[in-house]
Amino acid sequence: MGAPANHPSLTLASASPRRLELLARLGIEPDQVVPADIDETPHAAERPRDYALRMGKQKAAAICADGYVLAGDTVVAAGRRILPKTETEQEARDCLTLLSGRRHAVLSSVVLRAPDGTQKTRLSENIVKFKVLSNEEVDAYIAGDEWRGKAGGYAIQGAAEGLIQWIRGSHSSIMGLPLYETRTLLKSAGFQIG
Questions:
Q1: Exposure check for the chain: N or C terminus, fewer CB within 10 A?
Q2: Active-site residue list
Q3: Between the CA of residue 187 and those of 106, 112, 179, what are the distances in Å?
Q4: Where are the domains of the chain?
Q5: Under a CB-based contact definition with an 8 Å cutoff, are residues 177 and 19 in contact?
Q6: Which CATH class is domain 10-188?
C-alpha cells in the first residue's frame, strides 16, 4: 500500500534493500525507489548526530520527484568519531577492532520531504555493545562479506548479531530505518498504516 488515493506518490531515496524491506513491515510500498547520489564526506569536526541529520536532509533534497520523498541515513560512531561505510577488508577489520568489547552509537535519521519542499526529520539514537572479538571471530566475519558498504563494518541483521552482547534502542533503526519514527512521519502526512 503506497500513498493514499488523495495524496501524491512516495519516493524512497535509498538503494538499500534493508530500507525497502523495513518500509514493507509498515505496509508501505513506495511508488518508486531513487537512490540519492550525494557527497557523504563528513565535515571537519562534525558531530555524528549532526552528520546523520545532514545526510538524511541532503538525500531527501537531492531527489527530483513529485510527491513525498522519504530519506534517511545511518551513522556508526565511536565517541565523536564517525566510522566509514566500509569498502575494503582492511576498513572493516579496523572498524571491528575498534568496536570490539566496547559500546558505540548508531544514529539513524529519517526525513520526509513534502510536495511543497518542507522537510520533517526524526533521529533515532541507539547504543550497541560488541563482545570482545577474537582474531578468529573478526576473520570469520570478514570472510562472510556482510561488511561491504556497511556503516561501521557490520550488519546487525546478519552474523554480527551473534557478536553483539546487547543493544539499547531500536533494532530497525540499527538496521537502517527507525520504524517508529518513520511511521510517525508517514502517519502525520496522512499515509494509511495499520
A1: C
A2: 73
A3: 25, 11, 12
A4: 10-188
A5: yes
A6: alpha beta
